[in-house]
Specification:
The complex is a heterodimer of chains A (about 325) and B (about 290).
Chain A: E1 27-29, H1 31-41, E2 46-50, H2 60-65, E3 70-72, H3 77-89, E4 93-99, H4 100-106, H5 108-116, E5 123-127, H6 144-149, E6 155-157, H7 162-174, E7 179-182, E8 187-189, E9 205-208, E10 213-217, H8 220-231, E11 239-243, E12 246-248, H9 252-259, E13 265-273, H10 278-289, E14 295-300, H11 310-316, H12 321-331
Chain B: H1 11-36, E1 38-39, H2 41-58, E2 73-76, H3 82-91, H4 132-146, E3 152-157, H5 164-175, E4 181-187, E5 190-191, E6 194-195, H6 196-199, H7 205-211, E7 215-220, H8 224-236, E8 243-248, H9 256-259, E9 267-268, H10 271-281
């Protein structure tokens, strides 16, 4: 037996504590928790509620700052959502946190009937969006946006980085009405401060321009799209990146305008299943407007995804930077 | 004005006034049922005594201002009982009596299933069962947080005992010691598919709620004196626990031929029978508005 074979590092399952930050990437700790606690200083109506996931949604920072405005509801997501609705009826602005899978799947009717039907001022902020854990389908919220998009009047936000999370929290507090926000927690990458960017509710923002390809993306896929654009700026492709952090209501005007510029391949990149997310929302928007560019989707497959290490899974399912570069090279 | 129940000498007067209010609630409900020719009328007749005590005795309300901050909140979790709730809101003076002619019609404020967005005095949108109690937990927490001494009442059906969210919320209310929360379970032992004991057995009910940490009282919900006493006890007990009134009621109560009708979860009533039903009630003299 040949013992000189080089030993590869063993990649272990990326469970709930996994950070999506890559080695060497600049990060900010707990941007959601800190931003919320800061806002709450001048907003006594803000309360925090969770279903035994304060620590894992960074709500523990708010809880520590305002213990009498924090409500631990136990592992009962249905009660969490209905009680948050009850608190909103009494004039409070509850931030209800859990994982995206539990909010979208377990508590759907409670969000639909209690919170959204009366347009109550509840902000649902959810960890582990899309494929950000290697724990398996129980915790991988690959269809949360598809589920939530069907609810009338529900604002849906998929932020990219720490700056986006902080600014989105401020914006959703200012917004009156129910919000579903995907959350990045722990040490969250900081990327958008290098761009001329500000989060505005309902607005898509062009982060960089380019002649060959337009990537329309949300969430962590915007971070990836910017890396792809940098890597391919060696002459392979001139790539524009349009960041769409508000999935609903969708900034259709900006999307149509950018997609209508002739000669560019349009690629929608999302940390979500191919079914019912940003990709299909953009496709429908363009078709309705009679805009028909060459169109591709980078998204998770319509499948129950594997457990394992995130880098492996992101490569396997085509949402890593390397696999995006290779897909785009193939398409152009 | 509240009907005083503290003075024993006035108890008979209070009960006879409440009895007239209960009859009026039944009459309003029957007249609404007649508009649609159908409805959850048997439930309405069954819960009328409880609603009379709630709306004409227990609840602190300003009928002219249904969103008054100091009001007691009354959540109708079983949205299909809306016909009964509208009848009580009419009796309480929140909704004008003329409006019952619009029940279930297009653009009415009185849809068949109770919704907060349609009707003054309707605090939640029911219909999907098992929502009321967890909402009530949030409302009770919110009231306590604000230092508002109002009570939140959650009215629910025994069928909602099948829902997991009811028991999540029961656990939660006890955990938070929500003494400002009063739940009334209308136990009529009938569900859409048949008798409750065949659908999903829920007894022994008092033991279950006691084990969950609630202050429990089980009553005959068609015995006005018992209902009155249970509401007073629920409001006045010093225990730092949520309170539940387990109220056994008879569907169709007050109209003998409806009491006897089988499979009466959603009963069909012939056009000629509505007037017969109202006639059966009319032996009892009418009362004025309760507030």
């Amino acid at each position: 037996m040949n013992t000189t074979v080089e030993k590869k590092p063993r990649l272990t399952t990326s469970a709930m504590i996994a950070s999506i930050a890559q080695e060497g990437q600049r990060t900010k700790p707990a941007p959601f928790g800190h931003a919320l606690a800061k806002l709450a200083e001048n907003r006594p109506e803000i309360v925090g509620m969770t279903a035994d996931l304060a620590k894992y949604t960074d709500l523990h920072i708010f809880a520590k700052a305002f213990p009498d405005r924090f409500f631990q509801m136990g592992i009962a997501e249905q009660t969490l959502m209905a009680a948050a609705g009850g608190m909103a009826k009494e004039g409070f602005t509850p931030f209800a946190t859990t994982y995206a899978v539990f909010a979208s799947r377990r508590a759907y009717d409670f969000i639909h009937q209690v919170i959204a039907e009366e347009s109550l001022n509840v902000k649902i902020a959810c960890g582990l969006p899309g494929l950000t854990t290697g724990y398996g389908p129980s915790h991988q919220a690959t269809e949360d946006i598809a589920i939530m998009r069907g609810i009338p009047g529900l604002t849906i936000i998929d932020p990219c980085d720490a700056l986006d999370v902080e600014q989105a929290v401020t914006a959703v507090v200012a917004h009156k009405g129910p919000v579903y926000m995907r959350l990045l927690r722990g040490n969250v990458p900081l990327v958008l401060d290098e761009y001329d960017y500000r989060f505005e509710l309902g607005k898509a923002k062009l982060l960089r321009d380019g002649h060959d390809v337009l990537i329309i993306s949300s969430g962590i896929m915007t971070m990836r799209a910017l890396e792809v654009a940098k890597q391919m700026s060696d002459g392979s492709a001139d790539i524009a990146v349009l960041h769409v952090p508000t999935i609903k209501p969708l900034d259709e005007a900006t999307i149509i305008r950018e997609a209508n510029r002739s000669g560019r391949l349009v690629v929608v990149a999302e940390n979500h299943s191919t079914v019912g997310g940003l990709g299909e929302a953009v496709a429908a928007t363009l078709l309705r407007a009679g805009v028909a560019p060459e169109f591709r989707q980078i998204a998770l497959p319509d499948a129950f995804l594997a457990a394992g290490a995130l880098p492996t899974l992101h490569d396997r399912y085509g949402i890593s930077t390397a696999s995006m570069v290779s897909a785009i090279r193939h398409w152009i | 004005m509240k009907t005083p129940s503290q003075s024993p000498g006035k108890q008979d007067n209070v009960l006879s006034a409440l009895s007239r209010h209960a009859t009026n609630i039944r009459r309003h409900a029957l007249r609404m049922g007649e508009v649609q020719g159908q409805g959850y009328i048997a439930q309405a007749l069954g819960i009328a005594d409880v609603l009379a005590v709630a709306y004409c005795h227990a609840l602190n309300l300003r009928p002219e201002d249904p969103e008054w901050e100091g009001r007691d909140r009354f959540l109708l979790s079983h949205g299909h009982y809306a016909i009964a709730h509208y009848a009580a809101l009419i009796e309480a003076g929140v909704i004008p009596a003329e409006e019952l002619e619009t029940y279930g019609c297009d653009d009415s404020r009185l849809p068949m299933s109770g919704m907060a967005t349609y009707t003054p005095g309707m605090e939640m949108s029911g219909g999907s069962l098992g929502l009321g109690l967890p909402i009530a937990v949030g409302v009770a927490l919110g009231l306590r947080q604000k230092g508002n001494p109002a009570f939140v009442y959650n009215s629910m059906s025994d069928g909602e005992l099948d829902e997991g969210s009811t028991w999540e919320a029961a656990l939660s209310a006890a955990h938070f010691g929500l003494s400002n929360l009063i739940t009334i379970v209308d136990i009529n032992k009938q569900q859409a598919d048949g008798p409750s004991h065949q659908i999903m057995g829920f007894e022994p009910l008092a033991d279950k709620w006691t084990a969950f940490g609630w202050h429990v009282r089980r009553i005959d919900g068609n015995d006005l004196a018992a209902v009155l006493s249970a509401f007073d006890e629920a409001r006045n007990t010093a225990e730092a626990k949520p309170r539940v009134i387990l109220s056994d009621t008879l569907m169709g109560r007050g109209v003998p031929f409806l009491e006897e009708r089988e499979k009466n979860h959603f009963i069909r009533v012939d056009a000629s029978e509505w007037q017969q039903a109202i006639d059966a009630l009319d032996a009892t003299p009418a009362a004025g508005a309760c507030k």
